[in-house]
Each structure stands twice: as structure tokens, then as C-alpha cells.
Amino acid sequence: MAEAHGHDDDKPSRATRILAAPVEPRASFAATFKAMFRELHPIYAAFDKDGLLCVAAREDGKIAAYVHLPILSEQGAFGVIGRHECCALTLHDEDVSLRHALVRVSRQGIGEARVRLIDLDSSNTFRTEDGQVCKSVLAEGPLFVHVLGYQLFLFPTGSLAPSRWESSADATWQSFPERVYLDHRIPERVNREQRRPQPAGRTRRHTYMTLLPAAQHLRAKPGAGGKIVGTILLSAENTQIAHRVSAEDLERGMLIGRYERCQLAGASHSLSRVHLVLLLDEGDIWAVDTASLNGTIVDGQKISAIVLDRELELKLPAGMGMRWVPEHIPPS
To answer: For the chain, where do the domains classified as CATH 2.60.200.20 start and end?
Structure first.
């Protein structure tokens, strides 16, 4: 008997989708924060452990959804934002993709947070606080982005919070470090930007936001993207394909799933539209399950995220498999 699997929806994906026009922000992040402060303050105060509080708010100051991602190990924490109920932060809006974005929070030094937000190649990407359309951003503290009709507020918590929240909304907003943007999508701009040093022993005055290049499809010529770091072997029934990937490919994020926007795709409906993302972050290569319906299995255990620091076999639904082979396997 065939094994039954759930799938994201019963309708086949279309090659072309008519998109709604992006929603222009009507309120500043400061205005929205102040409007929701009375409701938000006790929510924030309830999470005193190191982690990240992710809050989606409407521009009228109403909180639509929130989730806290606790850091339980040195590997940090991951969360998926999207329309699917399996996501850590679920946004009930038809223009939001089922799996829209991936966020990771980790510790950076003592008492500092590192927040990485990646758009999962959605049709409606996010915009930064200064209005730039961006597919990936790295922050050294609080991060605020606009997604369609939502404003996303990402607040480090516990010892990672850059400042103590005050009793008033105005004082709390003023206590947040100034956000300074560095654009790594334009190399010339990177060379011109100078990071301002932080005085030793003083509260951080600036949060640096680094805009990173968007994900791209695998290049036809192996190795065209720079230094090769490994090979992905995808197998299904009697078919196997191999792709050599570079550090540049993985830094931008590579999507695996059945949707057309994925860099590596499978046809089975047991595979979620965006099932897995491979990501190079802080020197480690990660395989992150993007809140898939049928899961990803390693050594008989369902995983949410795992470091690809050795040759590994990942089992996907419907008999599919993915083997990661590092370019230089260290001696055992």
C-alpha cells in the first residue's frame, strides 16, 4: 500500500500568478511601535530569556501575530514566517507566500544579537526601514522591515537586548540604537562605507544592517559562482542529479522544494513548495527545514536545522533523498 502524505494544497501551482500591487507604508515604524506599545510591552516583558521576539503589526498599531524564538544552544534559533499554519509566525494574508521568509538569531560576542532575515524568493519581498527593496539583510540588533500590509519588528530579548524598555513608548523608541545600513549588493558602496567604532563599555549606539545579495538559480557551468564548497546529490526513484555549489550560492540561500521558485525542484506533492533551504551563515553550512508538512529526516530523526559539517544523507518525502558531500572531507 502506498504511504499517504499530506501536501500544502490540493491545487497545482500555476506558472504565472497575477500579483497585487505592493502596499505602500502609510505609517512609520516609530508611529506603529508607539500605537501598539501598551499591548506590546507586557508581551516583551514576558520573554526574559535570550532569543528574538518577532512581531507582525498592522499599520494601525494592531498586533496581528507574534512569536518568540528562544536561543537554546550556541547554534542559535531559526523560524519561518509565512501563511502556512506550520510556520513559526503565521500571517493570514493571501498575498503572503506559504513560506515567505526565514529568520535566524544567534549570539554575537557577549550580550549582542545577530539577526539574519532571508526572503524565500517570494513574489512580494520585504523593504527595509529606509525603503530599500531587499532579499536578505543581516542586523546586529533590532530589525524592522515592511512586508505587504505588515510591519515586522524583530526584537532581541534577554541579555541580547541592546537597551532596557522604558515605561513610555517615546522613551523606549528613542533608546533603540540608530540603524546604519551597509549595502553589500554594491561592492563600490561597501568600500566607501566606514563602520563607526563602538566605545568600550558603553551601550551600543548603532545597529549595523547589512543588505546581502539575493538568491540566484544554480549556474549551468559548475564552479562559475566562485569557490566550490560541496556537491548536492538529489535522488528520486531511479534518477539522480548532482550539483556542485559555491560559497556564494549558499550565502545567498538555496531553496529545495516543488515550487518553481526553488533552485532545486522535485515534482512530488508530498514535497512542500519550499521544503528546505541551504544556507551559509557565520562560516557554517546549514540545512534548514522551512516548516515543511512532511518533514526532513536525518539518522531516523526529524530535524528543523542541521549543520552540514560532514557527508550527510537527508531523507525527503516520497522516497526522495539529498546527500551533501563536502568538497574536502576532513580525515576521520
So the answer is: 29-188+205-212, 216-326
**What percent of the chain clears pLDDT 70, i.e. is strictly above it?**
80
Write the pLDDT tens digit of every residue in 260-302. 778 777 777 788 888 999 999 989 999 999 999 899 999 999 9
110 burial type by CB count under 10 A (0-12 exposed, 13-18 middle, 19+ buried): exposed
Grid cell, residue 196, equals: 563607526
Sequence letter at residue 209: M
In terms of DSSP H, where are the helices of the chain?
29-45, 169-175, 187-192, 247-252
Q: Are 100 and 146 in contact (CB under 8 A)?
A: no
- 87: Cβ–Cβ under 8 A, 6 or more apart, which residues? 79, 80, 81, 98, 99, 291
When comparing pLDDT for 52 and 242, which is higher?
52
Query: Grid cell 550580550 — which residue?
Result: 111
**CATH topology for 216-326?**
Tumour Suppressor Smad4 (2.60.200)
- The number of beta carbons lying within 10 Å of the beta carbon of residue 95 is 18
Task: Identify which of 239, 281, 284, 283 has the alpha carbon closest to the alpha carbon of residue 264.
Answer: 239
Q: Which CATH class is domain 29-188+205-212?
A: mainly beta
C-alpha grid cell, residue 318? 516520497
> CA-based Rg of the chain, rounded to a whole angstrom?
20
Rounded to whole angstroms, the Cα distance separating 94 from 17 reads 12
pTM: 0.79
**Cβ-proximal residues to 118 (8 Å cutoff; 6+ apart), any chain:** 101, 102, 103, 135, 136, 215, 253, 277, 279
Burial of 10 (0-12, 13-18, 19+ CB in 10 A): exposed
Q: In what order do the strands lie in the sheet with 143-147?
A: 63-70, 51-58, 150-157, 143-147, 126-128, 133-134
Condensed to tens digits (0 to 9), the pLDDT of residues 163-182 reads 899 999 999 999 998 888 77
Backbone angles phi, psi at 302, to 5 degrees: -75, 135
- Does residue 185 have a pLDDT over 50? yes
Provide the grid cell at 98.
506559504
The rounded distance, in Å, linking the Cα atoms of 244 and 261 is 19
